[in-house]
Records
---
Amino acid sequence: MSDQAWLAQNPIDVSQFPVDVDVERGSFFFREVTRESLARTAFLDGRTSFWTGESMARPARGISVPSDPRAMRLILHTGFCGSTLLASVLDQPGRALVLREPHVLAALAEQTRDEPSAEPLLWKACHLLSRRFSAHEAVVIKPTNWFNSLVPMIAAEPKSVHPVFLSSTSREYLTAAFRGGNERIGFLVRLAGHLAKRVPHGAALWQAAAAAKLEPLERAARIVLLARSLQHGLFSRAQRQGNWTTDRWISFAELKDDLAGTAWKVSRMLELDLDRDALEQRSAELAKRNAKSVGAAYSAERRRAEDEDVWSLHRGRFEAAQRWASETLADDAPGAGGSSAAMAGVAA
């Protein structure tokens, strides 16, 4: 029996959620979920169970993407820039379901490169994730930033994609990384290595950052800024190819200064039909909570004080890393010019 015939007899219901992919075997893996279990889970990366039952394998070859697929709405981000908070604000039952960091996209990025063979699986994964529990409830996907290695691929079908790009300044990024300690710094070091393998000249940039004879934390600061720069370059490349306007670039400062207003602007870009009063109420509630830790309180004043402490402690390292980045890596803004080495690596 062919894959298509098998799937015709065993259709994939919306309650069967793609949790993983095996690129070599050409299979997606599904588990039973509900709309409520997806919405209440901070991250759909497998660290927390949001499913029931055993994993079910389904052949990817038998999964077809409709000729007029639903729009793919994406919150793309560099990490540690308010994307989880924004995703939580935009989630409105009956109007929008926001999927936060589904593992299947991270697994796809880990197992593939920016190459033609990966593209069919990418579109199938996004189609599976974009299925609706109710007809009028749009789905928004906030991938992990590990997925950013594949972001330029989404520009192949710009009319089917509504993206926004979130980031922060180099100071904010360094401060957030070091505030998170060894675990967060280690993740960004791994991310830089992952991205560097997937862009032209990335290996040379990685070598410039990682092989420098510096004390470990100054070297780490360089690599953190490399991770940020590589992501900016991939975003810029996608923006140019998709012919998306630069107002789709959202800064962390915008979110902090006006969460409700920025979330409403993003909802328009993603073509969501949200209730503005509910969005503003949700923004006010979530501004007092920790977006990454369910039930934990959040204080903007306390966070500013923590960030000032981190900056004061590492100021020499951070400023040295910023000088290195300004000489070696691309500029901050998407589409802006930068050093020839950096831009050659990400703008091809």
---
Amino acid sequence: MPGTPAPDNQDGRSEETLLRRLAEMIETAYTAQHLTLTDPKTLTAFEIAMDVAKTITAGARAQGIVDDAQQAQLAGLLEGAVRAARLGDGP
């Protein structure tokens, strides 16, 4: 629901706080390569990479390497990385 704070995670940090920390970590990795996710083309490339990674996890599920729940968790982590990258305004 809009305006409702995100629930705290087990360690007491909100989802927004965790996403901002992840955004900072991802941006740091990109700036080390003289790139930034504030560049729309770089962000699009990152999103494509995350989509490919989700496809790979679905393949792992199809091959029995991970089960449905594990694949869903991995996909959720990748989707979180995309949400973090889209924050665009840093930590």
